[in-house]
């Protein structure tokens, strides 16, 4: 469920543009007004504002926001204002330009979006960057990570309800054998994780967890410095329990020395309109304290205001 | 340009269904009538006939055709009647069920369709087979062929006009180095062929051909028993000169001991509504005789009638 709150009376896009333009006018910027408007408009309303703004003021709204805002507040407002598929394309390109094996953004996008949405991300990537997503993955990522990430971002997984239990048992055993042998880069292990439908993989992971007595996510957790192992674990968690995955990333971003604002911003803007309420619940259970408290502790100013507005805790 | 001829007056789908049902009625089947109707309707008209038929007769048209027809004539009528993306999905699944490294069907579909059309094939594959195309490729194909075919069928290549000449020169050299070293299964060679846009690859191949004095297709032709090498050559030819590729496949299917009806049928039904006129010209130039003559020499009966009707030579 979404945590977005949209007012009963939503002003017309032209009225919103006028208010945003007022917020930019004169010395200083009225950040509160920007939060008040943008943090309370859904994707199609924001799209309408973006389409309307240049017709009235001749400028691109994102460019004006970019000019007026700074730092973490700028980043969250810009990312939030984008269409979901465009935003994912921008996030993916951002990590690819300075790719590091510990980045989980590509895995997150590839494993927690629907097949249709992942295809929309690939379309948006064409439009934004004049290249394909998989072209950039193959170009920037080398070795075993390329072998894993290329099929992952190129997948168009089947999404029907069919489960083949014989196959699930067979492939659970393959996964267990390979993981026991520490053969993490094995072709068959990668084939199973990158091509099977999520429902089929759910059955495979369930069988693994029951048959071999340890959860597959636990078997993949033995070494936190092994980024490839973490990648495999993120794939399994992102596919089987996206809510837990997102709560865990938020926990890691907040409960550490120095907040990871990049991850915090990313999870909030990408999940607000999808499943933020479930993520907040999961976060609370996992950490014994509500998400908004951790955000209040760790962030400041308009960035904090924007985060709290988006998760529904103003 | 299409070789399809559609009559000035096209009967309504219901009238076509009535005639088809007459063709099936009583003892024996009126194959001429089937050719007369179906070989002269475009994809959307055939779709309308397929949608209309069960409403009148309660049966699926394809099942009735399957019951009434036999052998090569049956195969060509069934394949022709399908939607283009559904037909490609059926062709791909057909080769995957009994995959052999000399099959070029997957390469043909992956390299000669537009990015959008290849995505439609993947959607149709979901609908027809309750699995994804790449899932079946990864499952049925092993080793170096999996490494090549999986990214190929999963690609969503960028289709804009941009060419990076520096990159083209750099990657032409990589291709040349790898081919000279017979390192055909090299990661970089496969990355370039499977992810770059077709226009970018065109520039890369042009640079290869000019800089290294032998055409890349020639460098990839040294050993016809090496199926992997043939696969690479088919990729290059399918991407850079699809018309030549199709004319070559038709030539191989016809000018040999025992016609390859499978390839002949496939190329005809998949190209009639796209570029069959150009393929016929290329075939004529290459073989010194028109395509219809070779078809008349090599095929018989209603199968021959259907082929000639489709290529516009009744």
From TrEMBL, chains A, B:
Keywords: Annexin, Calcium, Calcium/phospholipid-binding, Metal-binding, Repeat. SMART domains: ANX. GO terms for cellular component: cytoplasm; plasma membrane. GO terms for molecular function: calcium ion binding; calcium-dependent phospholipid binding; phosphatidylserine binding. A pair of annexin repeats may form one binding site for calcium and phospholipid. Belongs to the annexin family. This is Annexin.
């Amino acid at each position: 469920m979404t945590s977005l709150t949209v007012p009963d009376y939503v002003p017309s896009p032209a009225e919103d543009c006028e208010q945003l333009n007022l917020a930019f006018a004169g010395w200083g910027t009225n950040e509160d007004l920007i939060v008040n408007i943008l943090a309370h408009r859904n994707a199609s309303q924001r799209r309408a504002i973006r389409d309307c703004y240049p017709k009235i003021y001749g400028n691109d709204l994102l460019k004006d926001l970019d000019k007026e805002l700074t730092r973490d507040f700028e980043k969250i407002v810009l990312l939030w204002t984008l269409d979901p598929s465009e935003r994912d394309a921008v996030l993916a390109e951002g990590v690819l330009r300075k790719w590091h094996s510990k980045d989980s953004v590509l895995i997150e996008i590839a494993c927690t979006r629907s097949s249709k949405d992942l295809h929309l991300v690939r379309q948006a990537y064409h439009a934004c960057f004049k290249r394909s997503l998989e072209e950039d993955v193959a170009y920037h990522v080398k070795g075993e990570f390329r072998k894993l990430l290329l099929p992952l971002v190129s997948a168009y997984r089947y999404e029907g309800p069919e489960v083949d239990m014989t196959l699930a048992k067979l492939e659970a055993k393959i996964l267990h054998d390979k993981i026991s042998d520490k053969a993490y880069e094995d072709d068959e292990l990668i084939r199973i994780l990158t091509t099977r439908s999520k429902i089929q993989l759910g059955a495979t992971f369930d069988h693994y967890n029951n048959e071999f007595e340890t959860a597959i996510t636990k078997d993949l957790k033995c070494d936190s410095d092994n980024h490839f192992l973490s990648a495999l674990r993120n794939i399994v968690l992102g596919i089987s329990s996206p809510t837990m995955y997102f709560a865990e990333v938020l926990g890691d971003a907040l409960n550490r020395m120095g907040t990871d604002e990049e991850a915090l911003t990313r999870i909030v803007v990408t999940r607000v309109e999808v499943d933020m309420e479930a993520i907040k619940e999961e976060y609370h259970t996992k950490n014994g304290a509500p998400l908004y408290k951790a955000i209040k502790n760790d962030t400041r100013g308009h960035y904090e205001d924007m985060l709290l507005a988006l998760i529904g805790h103003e």
